[in-house]
Amino acid sequence: MSKPQFVYVSYIETTPEKLWEALTSSAFTRQYWFGAEVKSDWKVGSPFALLLDGEVTDSGEILEADPPRRLSYSFKHHKFEELRGEPTSRVLFTIEPFGPLVRLTVLHDGFVEGGKYLGAVSNGWPAILSQLKSLLETGKLLGIPRAALNKGFDAK
């Protein structure tokens, strides 16, 4: 039996370089990731942190960085008590040219069977990635509310 994972594939009208920048630059992430900032030097073994409203919500370590093709980091949640006890997971972004488009595949794995974290991630990533696609293609956001990140997860 396969382990629980989240996979999302999107085709975006952009370049691999612009997509890489959007994934690794706080100036970009603040726009589409509901105000969240990514902090790292993006070198293998370096720390990674995701900050929302100045608070570290998730942290990890850079596992792979091959600009502008692949980026992977470990991901440990800190914000919600119900999720803090779940194991560190892994996020992998694969960026592939596809004609005039870029194919972005996001794989988030390392979840425990029956845990709550996969459900939270499964609601959050589509909202984040939809905003990213819209921002890169049109320069505008979709207006998805931040509450969409926690849809289906009863965060107190």
TrEMBL record:
CDD domains: SRPBCC_CalC_Aha1-like_GntR-HTH. It holds the Pfam family AHSA1. SUPFAM superfamilies: Bet v1-like. Residues 14-137 form the Activator of Hsp90 ATPase homologue 1/2-like C-terminal domain. Gene3D superfamilies: 3.30.530.20. It comes from the Bacteria. Belongs to the AHA1 family. This is Uncharacterized protein YndB with AHSA1/START domain.
